[in-house]
Amino acid sequence: MTDDDTALVDRFLDMMAAEAGSSRHTIAAYRNDLGAAGLALANGLGRATMPELAQLAPQWSGLAASTLSRRSAALRRFYGFLHEEGLRDDDPSSALARPKQRRPLPRILDNDEVDRMFSAAADRAASGQPEALRNLALLELLYGSGLRASELVTLPRRAVRAGQPFMILQGKGAKERLVPVSSRALEAVQRWLDACPQDSIWLFPGGRTHLSRVRLFQIVRALAADAGLAPDRVSPHVLRHAFATHLLAGGADLRALQTLLGHADIATTQIYTHVDSARLVALVNQRHPLAQARRGQPR
Fold first, then answer.
1. Which CATH architecture has domain 3-95?
2. How many Å apart are CA 260 and CA 106, to the nearest integer?
3. 113-152: per-residue pLDDT in tens?
């Protein structure tokens, strides 16, 4: 990118951080997407015309739909910002393709599989070994509170307090929300705190700082293997999905679930209604008398 384009991108990303509250991960993704677009545009980002933007879709035809959608979204926000700030007289982003992207249904675990993971983790924690106590506390907060992996590993030591059935955390986009903490999770965390290094400012220390997301991923897969589940089916995000799906199946309100998960848009939360619908359809196909008759079985 030219120096002028770099200055425009920096100004735009400063706005995204200050006014929109975007996380550093979002800022980094936008910078990469805008940089890729700048390389593909003959006149650069700031001076790009509608015909030039229209040609980006054919150039990016080999990209995954999710990547193309993200890049288009970044460019739309960028040019919208330039137009609002008077840095351009027009907004050429209407020429960008709008790829249709179907949100995939999240992978989930059923209640029995979750129970098996907790049973195996609790058996190991009964030994009193610090690592086993930590792993049980991690599992309780992932499934019991629906935390994101990044939110969990960066919890300060005093985030979970005895007798307090909730905690306040700063989630995606630097937005604060209340998160429920079950009595089981409180007990598991307290047992872990008794064994946790006393000089750590983090609830889950790792090396010189807190536990990494990669290490959390490895721990969760090991817990799945201990429970006799295929490790590649389980991740911290799968446990978050299980938290949401099982709450919804139990009668939770969609708006309440949106708040608990920290979703900015309820459309993101609505994916769980599709998951539950898919479960119900499968149940009908497997259990309904007519389904039995179609397979040649007596009704």
1. Orthogonal Bundle (1.10)
2. 17
3. 999 999 999 999 999 999 999 999 999 999 888 888 888 9
